[in-house]
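User: Structure please.
Assistant: Input sequence and predicted structure:
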Amino acid sequence: MDPALARLVRDSGCRLVGPDKGLYYNPASRYERCQTDDAAFAKLIAQYGFAVAPSAMHAARTTGYGGFEIGIEADFTKIDSDADYWKRGTQGPQDPTTKDFSIENRSPDAFLQHYALKVRKGFPFGFELTTAVGFLANTNLISAGADVRWALFEGFRKGIPAIFPEVAVGGSVRTVTGTEEFQLTVAGVDAQVSKPLPISGTVVVTPYAGYQWLRIFGDSGLIDLTPNTDAVSYCNFRGVNSPATPVEGQGGAPVPYDGQPVCSGGSQADFNNTVVFDAVRMTRHRLHFGAQLRFQMVKFGAHFITDVVPPEDANQGEAYEIAGENKFAGLGQQWTLAIDLGAVF
């Protein structure tokens, strides 16, 4: 399930598939580069982003001044696994003998599994900081980030204030590493209400619900759309157009030093197939609810997250269109089921 962005092109005839199933430069395309499938890239980033986004998996009450919590969280996020962009845009399994990847991922995982270690620390005046580090299963992607939360109303056990639910607001960010194909960062703002319900003195059940606003930032790295053709060798590269390796124009006329590749008997056309995809900026609105069960120091939680509106409806305007069509058209609403287990000190 690691990304394979070189496969996301709109015109397959711009390159050749070799006997080894590799992607090679097609001389018939001359200097016209392969066209990136930016809509497919945007949808891929949208679904990766939902999976690694901060889960806001906590009640409104903080760990308290001097409080400390460490836990493990597991998130299972539904994706559009039958979509073409998942099949073309991810590597798929390796051949056990040759270790080669298939030309497409014929059976993408139905869920993205994200596992994280989280540490929460309480501070005075209802503030709390969280750090998290995790990974996406079946990929090389590693996530890391932090949260800050402020409990506006918490901890009342007697009198009229004890009747009302606790309220908190927070902000969070996650970023991803482990691949050179894209950079992905997700920022979120959330608000929550919760109500602890003591049972038998030693057990506390805390149901909670909230809303989260997400902003996803996705940028591709430099992607070679013809990775099996070495552009340097194809050009017979001898340098760039500079005083050290100048290029002569017609009749020996001088040519401005523009830094373009200088070839010796070859063609520089394949250099055009090293590209970047259009940057992705998108908003998502999510509802989440869940419950925590605490017995003395041990805490267990279950959590559900879902889109409030389809991604296409949340991202309207020319900035989200390609050739007059919304780049998130047809992208399904996602949901995540999460569980966690931790210890509170």
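The chain has one domain: 36-222+280-344.
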